Each structure stands twice: as C-alpha cells, then as structure tokens.
C-alpha cells in the first residue's frame, strides 16, 4: 500500500463535485438497496407530463435515464454541482434551476411527479405545493444513523443525532403536509473502506458528515484508521436508505 501522505494528498486534490463516486472504484464499496431506485425511476419518468428532480447534484442520475418526462426540470443549490448538472442536462432539454428546496420558484400544482435521490431535507409542504392533486413524490432518502461508524470515529458518540431522518417520522410529516403514503421501505447496506484516501475523499464529498473535517485537524484520527487499514481488514460502516412514495391528496 502507498504511504499515508501519498494517499491523503491524492484524495485531497481529487474532484468532489457532482454525484459521481467512480473515484472510489477499487478503494471502497457500498451495497445497494434491493429495490433498484434508478430502475424504478427510469420506468416512471417517461409516464410523467411534467417532472422535477430535487437536489439533483451533478445531474448524473437524470443523465443516465433512457427517457425523461415530457417536460423535465431539476433543482440544485450548490453552484459547482449546478454547473455540472447544467452541462449534462441542458442538451436533453432539462430546465436546471439553482435554488434550495425550501422555497422553489415554481407555480402551485406545476408537476405530476417530483423525484429525488438523497435529498438534503424533504420540505414536505413545499413539495406538496408544487405537486398537482394526485401527483406522486418518489424518492430515496438517506436513513437514520447512516455511516455513523465512520462519522463517530471522528466526532465521538452522537446518540441524539441517531434519531434524525427516521422514516416513520418522515411519513408522518408527509401526511401532515397533504400526502397519502403509498410505500415506505428501508435498507441497511454494508460499506467498506480499503485505504485512507477513500476515507478522506468521502469526507470531502460529504462534508455534512464531519462538518469541520480537515486533514490536519483530524490527523491523529486518520493515522489511527490508516494503521488498521494496513492490516488488510477494511473499515466497515453501514449506510441506511429509505424508499418513499407518496401521493398528493386533493386540496
């Protein structure tokens, strides 16, 4: 295995925009949930008249769809991601809007399908506002305590944070906002990190995991983890995912 400094330096210089995780190939793995979100999305989009994908990242998921809705929009708040998404999606006629999802510049009842893969926060009342009566919200959310084995290695125990993103609470919040829940499924998926570069890149790509992450600040935590990885055993964590489908009730 290459030296600690080589791995950390390489990971610190690598591009982390968008939602392309191919940099981790051969260095980290993550199981996928059993329901096949992108496959289901590919089936739903062509049936929609007007759809929007929220928090689209770099647009990679939409760009991989064989067919899109008749009218397709997407939102992204982080400028580097939005620029990447615009490059990928505008040639396919997608309207890319730079905005947060708590206040979107769409008229009431604009869409018959709202989708999202790993939204930052599902703002249910705003989603309900832009959906037509009978319209569908279909998404894969990050679940509770996702990747906490890794996060707590750096931050210590986070007992109160483990209750965030609870699927039962999300379903209740959606119902209060005017939705009928048609499906909720959960999965716990194994993650493996094989070198310290994979850890550094991931924490840069997902800065909300360890908000103050910096290689120098967490030098000892990283070196301790690096020593364990050099024994040949991967660092194991678990991501959690929620598949949720909800239908907008009549106003």
From TrEMBL:
Any one GO biological process: methylation
Alphabetical keyword list? Methyltransferase, Transferase
- Which molecular-function annotations from GO does this UniProt entry contain? S-adenosylmethionine-dependent methyltransferase activity
Q: Which domain of life is it from?
A: Bacteria
List residues of the Methyltransferase type domain.
Answer: 53-138
Protein's name according to its UniProt entry: Class I SAM-dependent methyltransferase
Q: Which organism is it from?
A: Kineosporia babensis
Q: What is the lineage of its organism?
A: Bacteria, Bacillati, Actinomycetota, Actinomycetes, Kineosporiales
């Amino acid at each position: 295995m290459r030296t600690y400094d080589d791995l950390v330096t390489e990971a610190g210089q690598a591009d982390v925009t968008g939602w392309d995780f191919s940099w981790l190939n051969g260095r980290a793995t993550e199981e996928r949930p059993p329901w096949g979100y992108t496959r289901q999305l590919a089936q739903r989009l062509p049936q929609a008249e007007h759809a929007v994908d929220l928090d689209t990242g770099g647009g990679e998921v939409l760009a991989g769809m064989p067919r899109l809705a008749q009218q397709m929009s997407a939102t992204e708040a982080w400028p580097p991601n939005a620029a990447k998404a615009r490059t990928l999606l505008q040639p396919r006629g997608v309207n890319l809007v730079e905005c947060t999802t708590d206040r979107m510049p769409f008229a009431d009842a604009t869409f018959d399908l709202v989708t999202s893969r790993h939204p930052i926060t599902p703002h249910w009342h705003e989603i309900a506002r832009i959906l037509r009566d009978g319209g569908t919200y279909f998404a894969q959310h990050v679940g509770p305590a996702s990747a906490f084995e890794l996060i707590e290695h750096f931050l210590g125990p986070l007992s109160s944070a483990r209750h965030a993103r609870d699927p039962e609470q999300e379903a209740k919040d959606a119902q209060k906002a005017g939705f009928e829940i048609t499906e909720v499924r959960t999965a716990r998926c194994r993650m493996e990190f094989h070198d310290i570069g994979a850890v550094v890149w991931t924490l840069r790509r997902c800065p909300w995991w360890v908000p103050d992450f910096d290689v120098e600040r967490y030098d000892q935590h990283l070196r301790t983890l690096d020593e364990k990885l050099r024994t040949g055993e991967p660092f194991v964590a678990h991501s959690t995912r929620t598949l949720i489908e909800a239908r907008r009730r009549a106003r």
